[in-house]
Amino acid sequence: MLNPCDTAFLDRLRGLLPEGCLSAPEARYLEEPRGRWQGVAGAVARPGTVAEVATIMAACNAARVGVVPWGGGTGLVGGQLQPTGPAPLLLSLERMNRLRGAYPEENTLVVEAGMVLADVQAEAANVGRLFPLTLASQGSCRIGGNLAANAGGVHVLRYGNTRDLCLGLEAVLPDGTVVSGLTRLRKDNAGYDLRHLLIGSEGTLGVITAASLRLFPIPAATLVALLVVPAPTAALDLLTLAQERLSGMVSAFELIHRAGFDFLAETLPEIRAPFDPLPDWMVLVELGLPAGIEPEMAMANLYDAADDRGLVTDGVIATSHAQADALWHLREMIPEANRRIGAVSSHDISLPLSAIPDFIARAPEVIADLGVFRVNCFGHLGDGNLHWNVFPARGRSRKDHEDVRDAVKTRVHDLVHSMGGSVAAEHGVGRLKVADLARYGDPGKLVAMRAIKAALDPHGIMNPGAVLAG
Amino acid sequence: MLNPCDTAFLDRLRGLLPEGCLSAPEARYLEEPRGRWQGVAGAVARPGTVAEVATIMAACNAARVGVVPWGGGTGLVGGQLQPTGPAPLLLSLERMNRLRGAYPEENTLVVEAGMVLADVQAEAANVGRLFPLTLASQGSCRIGGNLAANAGGVHVLRYGNTRDLCLGLEAVLPDGTVVSGLTRLRKDNAGYDLRHLLIGSEGTLGVITAASLRLFPIPAATLVALLVVPAPTAALDLLTLAQERLSGMVSAFELIHRAGFDFLAETLPEIRAPFDPLPDWMVLVELGLPAGIEPEMAMANLYDAADDRGLVTDGVIATSHAQADALWHLREMIPEANRRIGAVSSHDISLPLSAIPDFIARAPEVIADLGVFRVNCFGHLGDGNLHWNVFPARGRSRKDHEDVRDAVKTRVHDLVHSMGGSVAAEHGVGRLKVADLARYGDPGKLVAMRAIKAALDPHGIMNPGAVLAG
Questions:
Q1: How many CB pairs below 8 A link A and B?
Q2: Which DSSP string corresponds to A370-416?
Q3: Reported pTM
Q4: How many Cα atoms are found within 13 Å in the side-chain-facing hemisphere of A305?
Q5: How high is the ipTM of this complex?
Q6: Chain A nearest-CA residue for B164
Q7: Cα B69 from Cα B203, distance rounded (Å)
């Protein structure tokens, strides 16, 4: 059982830290984007160095006080706040936001965990390189949180998940042990890969304090198109065609259903739809091309080849940066429209690519007897990652379906699981999906996870209640 | 303390397994390529199913009998044999070599751990895809061993290390627990990443029995060139130039020193040198290009741009498959020439890319007072991974330097470590570098490694003596 982060503990901890490191937590630390939970905390610590983080962790471990790491507070599964139980200490890395080094000739950047993702992207651009992690919250999320959650986003297809963008980590284990692994090496087989164990563990095994990140050359040209496809199977065939013709140059491949534009028309009518009438299915394709390939030609050739095979029926190709931004803006506003409509249940799922058309066909059937719903299915098709979200019929509200919300979620997740998919694709487990992990997780994997958690965090101070039930 | 795999234990185990699963170990299981060690073993088990592997592991765990996993026996650091101590059971996966499934539309292949790497490559080619892991022993090493060791090879620059080519694993933990993680998902954040913990753990945490692997489109055209560079710095600048111009299409970038060709002339005189007189430094570049880029033009443009910057002085561009194979053959015969000369000490090291020229300049100095040596420095420059090997002067033998061998190794490794490098880049730790890991490993990382090892393998049965000292 953990102890609360109370005045007596804070008085002791204050004596070990520089002035100003500890304070009462403002409201922003105890809220999360979807408003599902309210957090509790005895204080927020904002250390400025890894040594201070180590001091904090060792003190919390000795006193059996919970620690909830806090990045940018943008997580969607409640990993960043603890709603019940003995008040923990919030550990915010926001003051550790420095650039430790830029090595463009190595395609490497070393940054502290509290750097905002947009600043990481800017530091890379400053040295003529690309840091490809791109997601909606990039203006406020922090790279340490992206790493802890193994964030996804729109460029995973080409550049991988956050874990694939990390060469090394500096981290602090629950007992205050510092792991100094800020390697800039591309090959290093000297011992177990702690980096990948910490990445995606959502702050339950330790705290990431800095990372060395992979950079990439900036493509000479970027081309964006919104293509109309007759069905999800055609979208997958188009993906295969694009990959075969432009191996490694397809930077994004996003599926969009008509519902997304319907929702935009309903909630943000100033945004103009790209087609009239609206087709059922579209894909947003981004190519990043080297010098020597004429971008419009590459896209036109792809379109013609797809047309020959019946995989596309119409399309808009951006001919300027402004048009490209406008197409991406359409895609990026869909979550905002979703929020305004108000989902009965949202699902961040992934499937084997070839199972996706079947899932899209079957999923509405498994919830059909629970009510009359609208479904907005969109997301990172290239990664097999869909946001399959269920909404009330027009004129009704999510509140009208509160009683079936859990049933909707369970039936969708059961279907995903039965088809070899994951119910925690890119947003993680957090506190929202603890029961899902217990239900769907491989029993052998859960045994190993519990053993590792007990080994590295024997008192269970790290992010209590997240990922694994206590 | 472990118990030997003796007759009494084997009699009990035999009753739990199908006939023919256990036998006396032939000599091939107890030897390794460099002839440094002779292994001991009570028997070799060749299970045919994951259930049989689980039975074997559970029995060994209960009886405290060591288990040494055996893939293709090609490892260079002694991870596959135990030279001393209570005789372990050798666990060979060679009968588990089936294709479990091919999904070209998902760029995924699911294979059992005992499949020979060349067969994995062939299964991928059978469905029109590329499995890019390419290394000298591919005709006999097995994919389970490649995964356990996180093998590198010549295509890491473009496609990553073995861990980057794996989507999911089936594995058996030391107590017989089966972890069923053969996902074909590109995004899955449901819990800790056991896959990456097992990959690279060299059989010390469990046994990999099957894997789902990432495939890639086959490039429309491949072009190979051997280019002469004035110095290692120029080679690195050429790499940067190539990456900027042909982002993601540089498949290999291998550094070759004149010594490699001198050794070939000395030991395999039938192999003709590509230049006369031989230059000091060369790079072997492989481009893998999509349709729409004319290969010779791409290479010619790269050469001209490099020439303008003074980064190349000469070159041979292969104009046929046969010429490309001949250039690769030169590169691949260098290790054979090394073997015939006989190294005083071989170093599989990696460095931050920008530190490489400095290392190449300084390394000969740190061993200068230990004798008169020849150095052959070659390897995967694109990954910062050099094979920096020390040889006796012409007419002398490695035996003449036995007394300084350890000093040579330590001084080279000390230098690598001081420059932020790794002394176990792509071959792993095995038993050869256990002391190096203890010496150079981050203390915090070692603490965490020991905790994880104790949690997953409390009796220490898995590959005793490998990676971590007992």
A1: 289
A2: G--EEEEEEEEGGGTEEEEEEEEPTT--GGGGGGGHHHHHHHHHHHH
A3: 0.97
A4: 17
A5: 0.97
A6: A164
A7: 6
